[in-house]
Here is the input.
Amino acid sequence: MNKKTVSLEPTEIIKAMQGALQSSNAKIMQMTNVFDTVQKVLEKETFKATAITLASEIADRHHAERVSLGWLKHDYIALKAISHTDRFEKKMQIVRDLEGAMEEAYEQDAAITYPEKENSPLSNREHKRYSETHNAGNLLSVPIRHGDEVIGIITCERKGKIFDDNESTQIHLAANLCSARLLELYSKSRWFGARMAHKARKVLGKFLGHEHTWAKLIGILVTAFILFATLVPIEYRVSSPAILKTDKIIYTTAPFDGYIESVSVKPGDMVYKGQELLRLDQKELKLEEADLMAVEQDNRREIQKAQANRELAEMRIQQAKLAQTLAKLKTVRYKLSKSVISVTADSAIIVEGDLQKRIGAPVSQGSELFQMATIENIYVESSVSELEIKNVKLGGEGLLAIKSRPDYVYRFRTERISPTATVKDQENTFAVRGEFVKQTPAWFRPGMTGITKIFSEKKTLWWILSHQAIDFLRLKLWW
Here is the structure.
């Protein structure tokens, strides 16, 4: 397949080079105009002077009758400068209409020309109304950008020649190059409160924007938690271990010296009146009883013998010995009757007394064998730490959860705080007695343990989490 050869005449090449050179020269001139404008604008020290200079330079270089600069303020455009004009009345109708045309460009975030270009998707209704109402002729509105944000609008008015794309590009470039300086001077010109509000709004705008959604969501949640923890008071409850108790405690002691023969109960058992608890060894007592019975018979015979012989003195002696023997026999039989220890209360529970492993062991008279508690008038006793006792008030309410049934809680009211501390688990604790508000369940038993939560004053979550550590540091670091 043959390729066609394309040849250019020398004259055509020269013309093309001349056209390219002219285009380059035109662009260089355009950039020079832009840089000159920017240089003059950057020399100014106030926002008003900078804005007027920018508008005037654009008006002079593009032969516009009037160039206006509007500034974004609370999502609205406010007119700030007019070319070659130091003062203007902000309440004039022409100013309001001009600001409306600027807002039209701001809302569409694009440069708008009037008359509009063919097939343009942009709306220029406000520009048309402004031009026709005030005989402004051709219009061009260009956004002033700082980064990705629109901070203002420049609107040019010119009769005769329509604004073209090159002019729009030059104005847009000059405005953007001056935007940082304009923004800096505008911020400095505002009073302190307005500057702080603007900074806060800018930070919040970044914080609540659509980017980095998860990071911002976590930040919002953390901020909300911090505010909640430091500002919102919640019910504080003092937590402490507790035990069920009753005032009716029955102590069972050994009636005499002896040895344990058998034990019928263990701690936790329910016992009833007359039920056998423990039996002491009766062998020695029965042997002693038999000996004393034999001595009794001997004493009676000796008395009869003395009576027969009419020996009055001997009879008196034997009668005294008989009385002594009968007394000893009565004591032995009393011990035999007490060797079986039984329950004296109607119903109770064994609290202490695990003697199953002590069968055959000796016991002394008066030594404690069992401790029983009657199942009535049960109350709760909480062991509150010395660090938390200041947060417990008399008459305050609390909740109790029993270890055997932790799914239920029972309300009580504090009735008494022990005036003295006791050492428990190497920590000072105070006993706090609580009476149940409602009738206690039938399965409550003295000696059952659990956890109490005693209501105190409302405190913030931050205080609840940190007060113990802060108190510790205060105690250690004070001077």
Summary: The longest helix spans residues 10-42. The chain has a mean pLDDT of 84. The radius of gyration is 54 Å.
